[in-house]
Amino acid sequence: MKLLTKNLNMNRIFVLSAIGASALLVQNTEASLLFSDGFNYTSGDNLGAGSTTPPWTATATPASNLSIGSTDLTYPGAPDPGGNGLVMTQSASAGLPAYAALNSSITSGSVYYSFLIDCTTAPTTASYLTSLTSSVHPGANGVTSDALAVYGNKATGGTTWELGIRIDGLSAAYDPTALTVGDTYLAVVEYTFNGTTPSASLFIDPTAGGTQPAAVVTLNGIQAAANPDISDVSFKAQTSADGNYIFGNLNVGTTFADVNPASAVPEPASLALIGLGAASLGLMRRFRR
Questions:
Q1: Residue 14 and residue 64 in one domain
Q2: Are 197 and 116 in a shared domain?
Q3: What is the domain count for the chain?
Q4: Is residue 225 domain-shared with residue 280, that is, in the same domain?
Q5: Are both 139 and 274 inside the same structural domain?
Q6: Together in a domain, 93 and 205
Q7: CA separation (Å) from 278 to 21, 26, 99, 237, 243?
Q8: Which of 165, 261, 277, 278 is in the most buried spot, having the most CB atoms within 10 Å?
Q9: Measured between alpha carbons, how far is residue 153 from residues 28, 136, 179, 243 in Å?
């Protein structure tokens, strides 16, 4: 009888432990991303070559203008996946873009793209930096039109810089806030489908894990042609521009929360489940004795 009671108690403990573990997994389920990259590649490799392939593909012989550096950019309150950074050097020898395919093409709603950026040398002219591209207008594949492109530009005085966005058929628009060379910023861009009249927004330094704030730049207009999807993310150093940049922690998703997570902090429910698991293990040891 004592053995039967002991076995029943052991079974209850196993059930409680299983329930606790399952609930904890549910609590820690992460948002599904279309693409994520912390540039955890070999320092010195070029984007689209060596350790960076896959997921990156170079549209021509990979040049040193897009290379993996040893700097790991971080942002207050945001998770740090580690890795290195992507170093972009604008110069006369800059080549064609490198691109990576998203997990799936998006044809409606909104697409959000976030990344950390540090301008290490201020530009003196506007420069193309990175973009979300379509299978019909694939800027990543060598065509100049993109669904949504991000630009860097000089700010008043020349020692600071500005960040801006452009959608196909419209000129780039910049946030007038002067950004400091050598500081790391979190940039989030949003592209919303609407036939031939899509919209785009830029957010700079939102609170990690916070709700979507007011955009610092918004574009609404008629494109040269409708983009039926967003399928890739790309980078390109331009031959007609200057300025150097480091990028890190790329995320592409379908909601603002997807691409703007906060560092994981155990919730009260998760802590309770952890305690339940520890207590269950203690009881199991006791019964074994």
A1: no
A2: yes
A3: 2
A4: no
A5: no
A6: yes
A7: 11, 18, 46, 53, 54
A8: 165
A9: 40, 27, 10, 9
Q: Say which amino acid occupies 41.
A: Y
Average pLDDT over residues 40-69: 92
167 burial type by CB count under 10 A (0-12 exposed, 13-18 middle, 19+ buried): buried
Q: Are residue 18 and residue 76 in the same domain, yes or no?
A: no
The dihedral of CA 99, 80, 112, 122: what is its sign?
negative
Residue 285 identity (one-letter amino acid): R
Contact indicator for 232, 132 with CB cutoff of 8 Å: yes
pLDDT digits (tens, 9 = 90+) for 182-208: 999 999 999 999 887 899 999 999 999
Per residue in 205-242, pLDDT (tens digit) is: 999 999 999 999 999 976 656 667 899 999 998 877 78
Q: If you average pLDDT over every residue of the chain, what do you get?
A: 81
154: tokens are: 């000089």
User: Is the overall model pTM greater than 0.85, yes or no?
Assistant: no
